[in-house]
Amino acid sequence: MGIQDLQTFLASAALEGGAVSVDLLRIARNIAPRSATQMPNRNKNKFNIGNKLKLVLDAECCLDRLYGGFFSDWACGGQWNRTVQFLSLLMHAMEMGNIQLAVIFNGALEQQRMPEWIAEQNKIRQRINMVLKHINTKGTPPPKVWWCPPTCLRTVLRMALRHLSTTVLCSMDDHHQEVIAYCRENGFHALLADDAEYAAFDPPRYFSSTNLKLTYKGSLETKEFMVSELTKVLDLNPEQLCVLAALLGNYLLPENELMDVYRKIGLSFTPTKPTAEQIVRALAGYVCTLPSVTNLDAIVSQVLGSTDDKRASALRQSLQYYLNGTADGFLKYRTATTRRPDLQVKKRNPPQINTNTTVNNVVNHILCPGIVALGKPDETDLDTSGFASETTEREQKSLEDYKMATANAVIAPEIVIDSSDADVSLKSHGSNNKPAHTLDESGDGVAHMNGPTAVNGNVSQLLTATSSSTSGASSMNTSPRHHIPEKLRVSVEVMRTATERHQKGLMSPLIYHTLVSNEVRLACVMEDDQHREFPPAHLVFRPIRQKVYAILFNLHHLQYLANKSRAEAIAEGNDTHTIHTPEVFVREWTWSKCNQYQKPDMVRAEQLGWAVPTIQRLWFGSTVDDKRRRLRAFLTCLNSDSGLMLNPSYVPQHMLILACVLRYIMSHSEKCILRKQELDAFIAQAFAPELMNSQYLQELTLPLVTSRGVQLAALFMQGVETALLANDACGAPIPWLMSCPWLYFDGKLFHHTLARAAVVKNLLELCENHIDRVVKVERMRKAILEGLDIQFAKPPLPPLSMQPPNCLPPVNLPSTRGPTGLARRPVPARGGQLQVAGVVVGQWGANYGFSHQVRPQMSTGYGNIGRGRGVPLNTGYPVGRGFAMQHKTNRGPTWPANKRVVSHNYMNNKRKNPVKKNNKPRGFTVQLPSGETVLASEVVKPKDTATDSANKDTPESTPTTPTVAVVEPATVVGGDTVIYEDTPTKSIEHKGQGDGPVVLAGSQ
Question: What is the per-residue pLDDT for 833?
C-alpha cells in the first residue's frame, strides 16, 4: 500500500503497454533531430541540445546496477575493481552512443522522511541478519534476494564516476523534487529511476533504472514506463494523477490515516488486502468525481468532509508537493536562479568587542555568518574559492601516481556494438586512451573532475532554486533556510565551500549535514546484532567523528578564547561564573538493542590534543605549514601520527588510508579485534598483483565464506568511509585519487587471502614465495604497529575432545574435492542420513567427541562402520542413540582404553565361570603337576652364599638380559619335583591380554 502501488501497477502486466522494452543507444540516434524540432525557440540557446540523448539517473534507485549487478560475493566487502570496470564500460558505451548522463545521489537529510528512512534501515538490518545466518550455516555466498548495499558503496560510486568524468550531483533539501527539477531546468530528455513519485511528476520520458543492462553485443537495454498510457487507461489528466498519488499515501499523509476514505469508496482491507491494480483503479474512479486541482480547498473538503479536519493541512501539502513536480507546476513555483541568501559572501567589518564581553557573546559573534575567527586577522586574505590543497600541479601529480598504482590492471573484455546499429565499437580502456580527468585551467586553480560540460556550474543555483518545491514551503518564493543554532554557526566562506562541494559530490555528505543541521544518520553495517565477536562498527569509529566535529566547529579556538576570557576576568577580579567552557554536541542516529532509532545519541566533540588551526585555515591555507597541519590533523584523527606512516618505502601513498584504518583498529582499547593472520591478510591482499586483475577476481571461487571474514571486511570499509570523512574535514590532505578504495582492497580477494592465511606455514608462503612482497608486508606491518601496545585477538579455542590413550594422531590425507591450500569445510556435529535416489544408505549419530567409551560411529546398510580410528568393521558395539546392533561377535576389544569395552558373549562366559578373587597382592604363580596353582614365592628356596659365589664363577650365570627370577629345584609335598630352568636369553611368550596364570616350560 502507498504511493509505490502506482509504480507496481505501471510496471505490471495488468497495464497493457505500461512498460515497453527499449534500447537507449537506438533512441539516442534519433533523439537529436526530433528534439531540435520540438524544443521551443526560446530554449534552444539555453539548453544547447546538440546531438546527445541527455539522461538523469537517480542513483538511489539502482545502486545494485551501478555496483555491477548481483555479484555472488557482494557480501564479502565489495569487489571495487570489478565495479570500476563495469562503470568504465557503461560510461564508455554511453559516450560512444551519444548519451550524456548525470547521476544524482541522495544527499538530503529530509527530516520529514525520517520514518521512511527508519523503515528502510530496519528492512536492511533484517536482510543482514538472514545473510549472516545463511553464511554461518551454509558457508556459501547469500542469494541475491537478500542483496544489501555493501558498506561505503555510495562513496565508492561517487569517486568512480568522478574518475570517469561523469557528472555527479548530490541533492540538498528534497531529493525527488531536485531530481525532476534538474531534469526540466537543464532540458534533459528522460529520467532513469524506479519510483512512483516520479511517475506522478510526469517526466518527459521515464525509463527503468532497475532493468538497465549493458549487453556484450553493445546494446543498452531497459524498459520505458509509458505514463501517458497510464493516464489514458485511468481516464485522468496529469493534474488528476497528482491527486491520485496524494490519496495513495506518502510521507506527508500516510495511507493508514486515509482508511476512512478507502472505506467510503468501497475498498476493504479485511480479510485480504486488495491488489495494487484494484486500489489504483478504485481511487482513479473516485478522483474523477473531485473538483479541479485549481481549488485545493474544495478537494480537501470533499475528501475529508471539512477543511477543519486535522489532516487538511497535510493533504493540502501532499497535493501541492506533486503539483510542484509537474511541468506546469515547476515553471509556476520555481524561484529565481540566485544563490541562497545565507550563502552570499558580503564584506562586513567585524564588530568591536570589549574585553569585558562574556565568552558566550564572543562565541555568538565569532560564528555569525560573514565573520571569520577573531584574533586571526591574516585569515581574511585567504582564497576561499576552493580547497587550497586541490591545485592543478597536485592534481597532475596525483594522476601520475594513480597511473603508476594501476599499471598492472588487466584490460577489460571487449564490447562491440552491432555494425547494423552503429559504426562504432566499444573497446576496453587501455593506456592509450585519453585520461579521464580534464584539468580546468581557470583562475581558481582547482581541477574540476566532473566532465567538460558546464553542468556542474549551474547545479548550485538549480538545486537551491528547487527547494521551493518542498512540502514545507510549497507556496514560498524563496528557498527554505535551515535553522542553525546560533552557537554552532560557521563562517559564510566555509558554508559556501561545503555547499558547493556537497552539490558536486566532492565531499562526504555528513559534513554538510553536520554544519547545516547538527545531525547525522549512520546506515546499518553488515554486522551481527548480538556483537559476539566485534563491537558495533559505528561505536568503534565514533572517536574519529568526535574529532571531526571539533575541527568543523573550531572547538580548540573556542576553548582558547574561553580560557583567555577567564584569565582576564581573574586578573581584573571579575566574576568567572558566567564564563562557560564551550561544548559541541552532534546528534547521531544509530541502531542498537537499547535504542532502536527512538532518539539520537548526543555525541560530544573531542579536541585533538594540540593547537589545531581553524577550519578556515585548514581549508584555505596555502603555506607549507598549513599543508603540514592538514596532514597532521588527519593523522591525529585516526591515531596514526607516527614517523613511519609518512615514509613511502613503508607505506605507499595510495595505501595510506589502508594503513591508518588498520592502525586505528589495532589501537582500539576496549576490545582486541584483529588477529595476527587477519592483519597480514589485509596487508597481503593490498600488495597482491591480482588486486588489479578484475578478470581473475571474477573467475575466483571461494570454497568457504565465513561470518567473521564478512564482518571484518564490513568493519574495515566502515573505517575507510570514516577516514574519507576525516580527510574531507581536514581540507583533503590526501588527494582523492590516492584514497580510492579499489587501489588497496577487494572483498573477494581478502576472503581468499584470509582463508590461505589460516593454513599456510609462514608469511612467505602466504605471499606465494615472493620475497619482495614479504618485505613490503613486513614493512607496512611495522609502520602500523609502531609505538602501539600490540595485543592481537585470541584465536578461538579448539573443540574439546578427550581422546583415549595410545590413540594415533589424526592424519591429514590429501583431498581432490577442492583446491589445495584451503581448509575443508567441517562435518556438522549433529547426526544425519545419507540418501541415494531416495533410499537411506547410511546414517550417523551426533559427534560429541571422545568424552566416553562410546565413539561416534556410522551405520550403513553394509554393516557397522566406525568413524573412529582403529575400530574394526562389524564389531557389534553400540554405535549411538537409536541404532540397533546388526552383527554380534565374540572377539574382544582391539584397542586399549581406560575402560575396556568387551563383547556381550565374553561377558556372559565370565558370569558363568566366575573367578574367585584373591585379596593378596598379585604375584608370579606356577601350576603344579597336580593341577594346583600356587605362588612362586612358596616353592622358591632362598639362595645361600655358597650358591651365589658358585654361580658367579659360572659363565652361564651371567645373564645377558634381565630375568624375572632365579629358582632352584624344590621338593613339594607328594614327592613331586618340579625343575625350573633359568633361560635368561629367552623372553616369556605373551599368550594373552588377561591376568590368567602362566604355565612355564619345565623339564624332568
Answer: 75
Count CA atoms closer than 13 A to 412's CA, side-chain side: 20
Least confident range of 161-165, 189-193, 243-247, 553-557: 553-557
Name every residue whose Cβ is closer than 8 Å to that of residue 773 and which is 6 or more positions away in sequence: 684, 687, 688, 767
Report the SS3 class of residue 60.
helix
Please tell me whether the overall predicted TM-score, pTM, comes out greater than 0.90 for this model: no
Do β-strands 925-927 and 190-193 pair in parallel, antiparallel, or remain unpaired?
Answer: unpaired
pLDDT at 837: 72
Residue recorded with cell 541540445: 49
Cβ-Cβ contacts under 8 Å for 136 (sequence gap 6 or more): 707
Q: Locate 561 and state its grid cell.
A: 578564547
Q: Is 608 left (phi over 0), alpha (psi -120 to 50) or beta?
A: alpha
Spatial distance between the Cα atoms of 543 and 637, rounded to a whole number of angstroms: 8
Which residues, 6 or more positions from 457, have their beta carbon under 8 angstroms from its beta carbon? none
Q: State the sign of the Cα–Cα–Cα–Cα dihedral 867, 868, 870, 872.
A: negative
Lateral strand order in the sheet of 839-844: 832-836, 839-844, 857-860, 863-866
* CA–CA dist 784, 422 (Å, integer): 53
Among 710, 709, 685, smallest CA distance to 696 is for 685
Supply angle C-alpha 327, 223, 194, rounded to 5. 60
Phi and psi based region of residue 57 (left: phi greater than 0; alpha: psi -120 to 50; beta: remaining): beta
Q: Give the three-state DSSP class for 248.
A: helix
Contact indicator for 635, 641 with CB cutoff of 8 Å: yes
| Count of H-run helices and E-run strands, the chain | 35, 19
Contact predicate 230/249, CB 8 Å: no
**CA-CA-CA-CA torsion sign (13, 17, 18, 20):** positive
Q: Which residues pair with 521 in a beta bridge?
A: 589
Neighbours of 38 (CB within 10 A): 7
Q: Please give the grid coordinates belonging to residue 626.
A: 598549513
Quick one: 995 exposed, middle or buried, by C-beta within 10 A (0-12, 13-18, 19+)? exposed
Residue predicted with more confidence, 45 or 243: 243
Across 473-496, average pLDDT = 56
- Closest residue by Cα to residue 630 from 743, 735, 513, 786: 735
pLDDT digit string (tens) for 745-770? 999 999 999 999 989 989 999 999 99
CA distances from 695 to 571, 752, 994 (A): 72, 15, 68
Sign of CA dihedral 789, 790, 793, 797: negative
Distance CA(70)–CA(848), nearest Å, equals: 40
Lowest mean pLDDT among 265-274, 681-690, 719-728: 265-274
Please report, for residues 493, 559, 812, 879, the alpha-carbon distance to residue 849 in angstroms, rounded to integers and kept in the order given. Answer: 69, 63, 18, 13
Rounded Cα distance between 646 and 320, Å, is: 56
- Cα–Cα distance, 824 to 686 (Å, whole number): 25
Q: Check residues 333 and 205 and name the one with the higher pLDDT.
A: 205
Residue 366 vs residue 821, higher pLDDT: 821
- DSSP letter (8 states) at residue 1000: P
Residue with cell 565413539: 855
All cell numbers assigned to 209? 533504472
- Could you give the angle at the alpha carbon of 339 between the alpha carbons of 44 and 154, nearest 5°? 85
Q: pLDDT of 884-909, one tens digit each?
A: 444 444 444 444 444 444 445 555 55
How high does pLDDT run on average in the chain?
A: 75
- In 3-state terms, what secondary structure has residue 455? helix
Residue 5, amino acid:
D
pLDDT at 643: 87
842 or 676, which is more confident? 676
DSSP-derived 3-state class of residue 858: strand
Sign of the C-alpha dihedral computed for residues 259, 261, 264 and 265 taken in this order: negative
Least confident of 135-144, 286-295, 983-992: 983-992
Which helix (H) or strand (E) covers residue 927, if one does?
strand 925-927
